[in-house]
Amino acid sequence: MVNNLDKVKQKFIEKLGSVNNEEELENLKVEFLGKSGEVTNLLKAIKDIPNDQKKEYGALVNTLKNEIDAELNKYKTLLEEKKLEEELKNTKVVDLTIPLNECTGSLHPITVTQHKLIEIFTSMGFIVEDGNEVETEYNNFEAVNIPKHHPARDMQDTFYLSNGQLLKTHTSAAQNRIMKKYGAPLKVIFPGRCFRNEQLDASHENTFFQCEGMMIDKDISISNLIYFMKQMLSSVFGKELNVRLRPGFFPFVEPGFELDCSCPYCGGKGCNVCKQGGWIELCPCGMIHPEVLKMGGIDINKYQGFAFGLGLSRLTMMNFNIKDIRLLNGGNLKVLSQTKVK
Ligand code: FA5
After folding, report:
1. Which of 110, 225, 297, 304 is deepest in the core (most CB within 10 A)?
2. What domains lie within the chain, and their CATH numbers?
3. Residue 189 has what pLDDT?
4. Residue of 210, 281, 310 to test ligand 1 pocket, by largest number of atoms within 8 Å of CB
5. Residue 273 has pLDDT above 80, yes or no
6. DSSP letters spanning 242-268
């Protein structure tokens, strides 16, 4: 009988050596440990064993059963490891510890410049207002002293809606509404998108951004205008800049100016950016026309004010060294990723 045990053991070892997968292993388990399995049959044969040997025989069969069970488990683990190894070989491994590709979004350069302006002006006590993109003809033109048939309208042709409203041509369109909303005294900037029916080139778009500002108070003069413009431009370019005013005509300011700043790139010596002139034309401005103040409900016997209309898109081009304004609206990620600010 003990010989039978050895035979079963030997048979099991041989068969185990040729098992290739979990299914074959399961079949082997049934073959040896199942209800009619070889080891079970050995146990059943205990009835034929003489009484005085039963105990020893039982213990031997149990030991064999445990050994086979342990071998089957060991082999099962081995097969699982092998299977995993095969799977890994055929799988693209993702290493979570590798740093991510930095294809993340960022703010548009115009937004970055706008945020900078907002930071600078709010630090000087200005509030920030919003303007509409679709405006009434009154707000865009009449309220800023450009009546119907005024030749100044020719320079700001725009897109009209069937209801008579239009896409605003300049941020000045919000002046009247803001004056009426807050009254005087008032320090406010209002950046926004503008639209003009333009001949497009490297510095003219049909859709562009301006940042308008107004300061209305008692005893406001051109000196205040120069001071705030100088502060703002020096902060934007991160260095002390000089400004100068040249006469400029806008129906809503009197007197009106074109404000230039000393070229931040060459320090005024002359370079490609300033076309060798040493100055850069940046910001039309002036003292708000009394008629415009009156239409905004401001008492002109008590208050005066200045206004400016900075070309935000053009300032962005300077700030980021962008040569063609059309790149700003193009949505080309190759361009925009170069202006990424972290
Ligand atoms: C005006 O729009 C006036 N409303 C500005 C103003 C406000 C003057 C308050 C006085 C007081 P102008 O048309 O020059 O002005 O435009 C102002 C700036 O907007 C320009 O200097 C330029 O930087 C920018 N700009 C005008 N047209 C375009 C365009 N088609 N594409 C890109 N930028 C433009």
Report:
1. 225
2. 2-89 (no CATH), 109-339 (3.30.930.10)
3. 98
4. 210
5. no
6. -EEEEE---TTEEEEEEEEEE-TTTTT
